[in-house]
Description:
The chain is α+β, with helices and mostly antiparallel strands. The chain has eight helices and four strands, in the order βααβααβααβαα.
Amino acid sequence: MSMERTFVMVKPDGVQRRLMGEILARFERAGLKVVAMKFMKVPRELAEKHYEIHRGKPFYEGLIAYITSGPVLAMVIEGINAIERVRAMVGATDPQKAAPGTIRGDFCQHIGRNAVHASDGPETAATEIALWFKEGEVVDYSMDDEKWIYE
Ligand code: IDP
Ligand code: MG
């Protein structure tokens, strides 16, 4: 277990459905720490870089249209084992398979509208953080309650 940073995004459907606060609150309540945040419309070029791995798949064009369709809330979240923790809290890609208690399991219905993105591993996290944020936009700071969260 180590201190990690992961890239998380409330996708356009999450913003439109006014779920930003709900989603953010779950991460905050878990004791995770937000170290960067940006509310923005995603340029097509950035969407294509972010989803490069899915280029050519049948859902790719729809995915790019979806992610560029309205503003998103992009953020970097820090905590012990944060990459795996956040993925578990987000739930399975297909909301129909996502467990109750996960974000997708509680708020979503369709794989094409699954409200939130989270990096799937250490390499992806590093690449995505660097893609979405400039160096100075990720903030190093400590929280006053850390002694109550970590031993
Ligand atoms: P993830 O977001 O859980 O990591 P990925 O397999 O990396 O899932 O897929 C990226 C995104 O592409 C998904 O979150 C979803 O928005 C979209 N997507 C994946 N598979 C499908 C599909 O079969 N139909 C429509 N959209 C899909
Ligand atoms: Mg993925």
